[in-house]
Amino acid sequence: MINEIQTNFYRITLRMPYRLKHVHAYLLAQDKELALFDTGLNMPGAYETLEKDLASLNFSINNIRHIFLTHVHTDHCSMAGLLQKKTGAKIYLSAAAFEEYQHFRQADSAVKQLKKFYARQGMTSGQIDMVIEEYEDIRGIITEFNADNYLQNNEIREFGDWKFEVIFTPGHAAGHTCFFFRKEGFLLAGDHILPYIAPILSPNIFDDNFRPLATYLESLNDIEKLPIATIYPGHGNAFIDLKERLEEIRLHHKKRKKMVFDHLNVKPKTTYAISHEMFGSELSDFDKFLALNETLTYLKELQFEGAIKEGMAGDVLVYTRIENTG
Ligand SMILES: [Zn+2]
Predict the structure, then answer these.
(1) From ligand 1's centre to the CA of 247, what distance in Å?
(2) Ligand 1 geometric centre to CA of 71 (Å)
(3) Which of 1, 163, 189, 301 has the most crowded CB, counting CB atoms within 10 A?
């Protein structure tokens, strides 16, 4: 489905089988040339759907000259390589996003790291194998692409009469980028800010020092400073009440962090055990994995704040509350 939002600016909605059911890509037109922002999920029929959507506006896939990626999660980038192969379109993303994409391509080292990382959080090898299976499925659909150049933070890019600013917004993904159109007042937000769910945060399995929550909250501050009239997110409807939404998301994380803290005491617990206590066993295996990532995100922050401490019990990491003796 494709909708013209304003003259020469379009929203393309593509289906996907995941929980969110759909993902948006955005399109700018300048005469017959097109710039695509994100690509949708590379699932059967998706390419043909995009072809049909473009044909309904008298464009073709071959009119795509540029592809800008907000981040390298499959639902946003997995068709990029396919489109580049067919059209020769240039692809732009942040260097950090490209690095994430490359980690993803180097399966062996990523799988090894994944096993090590999650075993330390108290997951069993059976549970980890299940995650790796999902991960291999996901990896298979990302088509290979080359980056033509890297986006730089705060640079201004031009496409025909269009002008937009590149705003780095790490958090949901380490290399996440938003695109801000100052004159028109709109932000292509990717998954940085969504209308009805708080974007998922996950640890970086290659970098123990990465603080997803702190990084994410800082990136929220960065977009709050911009004179944004309308947010166009990767999922869900466009919205205008940015400040209100920012407050809701900040409050959500504050509450969740408190909830994690409330599950800790002097008895050492693994991330898996805490997550299991908090979210229960009703979840599907993959949702359990997402819940564990979320729990770990808050544990990292609580540890940084000095409220809890991390220790080792055998080969696994455990967390305890730091008792306030004062
Ligand atoms: Zn995402």
Answers:
(1) 21
(2) 7
(3) 189
d(CA 187, CA 194): 12
Distance between Cα 173 and ligand 1 center (Å): 7
Give every CB contact of residue 301 below 8 A, 6+ residues apart in sequence. Answer: 211, 213, 214, 257
Determine the distance separating the centroid of ligand 1 and the alpha carbon of 314, expressed in angstroms.
Answer: 34
- Distance, in Å, from the CA atom of 87 to the CA atom of 47, rounded to the nearest integer, reads 13
Residue 235 Cα to ligand 1 middle (Å): 10
Q: What is the pLDDT of residues 78-122, one digit of tens each?
A: 999 999 999 999 999 999 999 989 887 777 888 899 999 999 999
Instruction: Centre a 10 Å sphere on the Cβ of residue 123 and count the other Cβ atoms it contains.
Output: 23
How far is the C-alpha of 19 from the C-alpha of 172, rounded, in Å? 17
Q: Tell the burial category of 292 from Cβ atoms under 10 Å away from its Cβ (0-12, 13-18, 19+).
A: buried
Residue 281 neighbours by CB distance under 10 Å: 7
For ligand 1, the distance from its centroid to the CA atom of residue 199, given in whole angstroms, is 8
Structure confidence at residue 282 (pLDDT): 81
Contact call for residues 39 and 80 (beta carbons, < 8 A): yes
Domain ranges of the chain: 2-251
Write down the pLDDT at residue 325: 55
Domain 2-251: state its class. alpha beta
Q: What's the 192 CA to ligand 1 centre distance in angstroms?
A: 8
Cα separation, 58 vs 196, in Å, equals 34
Sign (positive/negative) of CA torsion 181, 183, 185, 186?
Answer: negative
Q: What is the pTM of this model?
A: 0.93
| Ligand 1 center from residue 264 Cα (angstroms) | 29
Residue 108 near residue 56, CB atoms below 8 Å: no
**At 202, which amino acid appears?**
S
Alpha carbon of 73 to ligand 1 centroid (Å)? 5
How many angstroms is it from 191 CA to the middle of ligand 1?
Answer: 5
Helix spans in 106-170 (H)? 107-119, 125-141
Q: Calculate how far, in angstroms, residue 75's C-alpha sits from the geometric centre of ligand 1.
A: 7
